[in-house]
Every structure is written in C-alpha cells, then in structure tokens.
Sequence to fold (428 residues):
Amino acid sequence: MLLAAPAVGPGSVTIVSQQVEAVSLTPEAGTTLSLGRGAYEGTLDITSHHAGLAAVEETTIDRYLLGITEVPSSWPDESLAAQAVAARTYLAWTLFRGRSINGTKYDYDICASQFCQVYRGPGGAADAWATAVNRTGGEILVYEGSPAQALYSSSAGSRTRSVQDIWGGAGVPYLEAVDSPELAYTPYERWELVVTTDVFQRVFARSGYDFGARIEDVSLRSPGEGNGPESVEVRTEQGVTPIPATRFRAIFNVHGPDLYPGLMPAARPTGGRWPQTVLSYSFEVGYEPPRPERHRLLPPGETGATGTLTVVGEGWGHGVGMSQWGAMAMASGGSSYESILDHYYGLEPSDGAGRLPATVRVGLLVEQPAIEVLADGPFVLEAPGFDPVEVPAGEWVFRRSGSGLVIVGPSGAVYDSPLFRRIRWQPR
Fold:
C-alpha cells in the first residue's frame, strides 16, 4: 500500500529511524502484521532496491496454505480439499522448479498474487478452509517422481484446455483437455464482447499492430485440440496478420479498459460488468462487414466503412488443469476430492511431506516507494548494525530514502534505541 507521511499534530512527537538497508519484523505471539488486504503472522523482511522497496514474508508451509484465498470457504468440503491439494502441489512444483527472475532479485520463492496463487495470510482463514488444509496434510500430486504442475483456473466452461494449446510446447498427460461438468453452476457459462472495427484497431495499435488497410475479415484459426495454440487472423487488402490467442486476450484486457472504460469490460446480462474484457482463451470470433444499406443514411463524405467484431466465449481464466467451478460442481454432486483430482489431472494424492521445506518465502509487494504496516500488537524490529528492539502496535511506515530506507513509527510512541531519533513537530 502506498501512502503519504503519517499525520502528526502540532507539538507532537514521532520517531524516525536512521537510514538502513533492510529491516525485519517478527510478530510476538498473537500479533498480526497487515499490509493492504492481507494479514500476516510470519517474519516480514522489507528491503530497499533500485526500483523501490520489497516486502517478503517468511512463514511455515501450513500457514502459507491457510492464507490461500482462491475459492469461497462456503463451497462444499470436497471442493475445498481438492483445492488444498492443488495449491500444495503448485507450491511444491514452484519450489522444485526454482525461483523466478523476480524471486531471485527480491529473495522470495513464490509471489502472493494471481500470477502464482492468491495469498493474503492466515489471519482470516475460515474454519472450513483450515479443515481442508489439515485434512489433506502433506498430500500432493506427483508425476514421474516430481511434483506436478497443478495448474487451475476459475472456470473452464464446458471443457478444460490442453496446456500445449495455450502456451505451446510439449503437452503432459495430466494437463490434457477434459469435459468440465460446471455449466449449471458457473456464472461464466457464456460471455460476449461486441466492438466496432475502429475500436478494435485503436486498441491493438497500442501494442504496435497496424493492419495497414480496411479490415475485410477477422477469424479464429485453430489447429485442433492438442495440436498447439490458436491465433486470430485479421485480413485486409494487404494480407493477413496473425495474432496469437494469448496476445489477443492480453491486449484487449490491458488496453481496452484504458481506452474505452465505458465499453470494456462489457456489461453482464445480470447487471454489473464482467471481471475482464476477454475472460478466457475459449472463444470464437465473428466479423460482420459494413452494411451497404447503411451508407444511404450517412451524410455525404462518410462511407460507413466500420464493421463489427464479436467475441463469444465461456469460462474465466486460462482453463488449464482443474476448473474451480468444475470442482465445486462435482463436489455438489457427491464426488470426493480424490475423484475431482483424478478427473482433472488423472493423478492421485500422495504423501509429499518430504518434498516440502519447513518454511517458504512469499513475495508480498515489490518496487514500492513506501510500505505501510499496521501491527495489532508488539513485534521485534531488527536492522543491520543495531540490536533488536521490541516496538509497540500501531501504524509503521517504511519509506525509500537514498539507497536504503527509513522507518517512521507511530506518532507519540516512546521507546529507546539508537536506531531511532525523536522529532518534535512544533506549530508554526
């Protein structure tokens, strides 16, 4: 969370630290450290880098899993258990694979966003989710002796996608397309986007696509299930421009709402808007050319040469691996979590305790000019070159300064450490 300097009243005293390179916050028993929407119980490391501050939590495997917030805790128990095994397996696979570029740079094993798994700390874990984590304790999915890449997404629609059809490369048996029995449950059974070709061209120009002439047709080219990625082909008088389906979706999702916030994401039939402009890779594309009869109704000089692009799809997310809404549907129909996992991955849970370390480092925030931490109890603060000091609850601000960072403590706090200096704010 970004913030300004804490407000202090006339004549008040606040505490500001010396400049340091890094700081660690270790909560006392019962203390939670809140950042943004998350509440964390592990040791929090805040470090300064060229691009800004990074916040990384080191926590136990079980606490990490308790903090996963991927599906509603009100869902059936068997769907929660399937999600717990998938989340634990994805963590094991991530650790087995090794750190990403950002993970190496900022010293974390896995990120806390939807790009890895959504993690907000164990503080708000519901009893049903905690039961699912504990019930499946240590269980993961293994393929050829290693943790499986247990991908999952919100909703697949009628059928999941083979991994090679989305990202290319060689397929793996446990990430092949299967039917997903969720259409009576998922709110993403069908979605639609309709835009003029003028809008389409402006959105894609933001990513460097210049089709060079009036669009004559837009169509989806599919090599067939299991044979690799699809592409959207834009045909003009000057030829055909292929756009990979993954890029097609990304451009619409990034630049569409920026250029046309009133149009994208589109309105839902039930009210509100869809969460993204193009929700999944499971879509069809239709093109309607300009209607000649419209030309007679236009003022002189206007050609009415704008066609219409329609994208109709199902599901939300990449669609590879387990569908969370599909798991919910299967559990609602009486399936066990083992059956759910077998349906989507063709694998059975096994004991993976020896494949996971005792702790994991989770990247919470990176490249921030300032980070606010709200502590609901005391914690131990450590900085290189200074003795650890126990500090009180309150709002703590960590702000980048020079090549390091400074700490601003709660207004009016009183404690003794050479790390800090007291500043008295006098009225003018």
User: Anything to note?
Assistant: The first helix runs from residue 61 to 66. The two ends are 31 Å apart (CA to CA). The chain has two domains: 19-145+350-408, 191-313. DSSP finds ten helices and 25 strands in the chain.
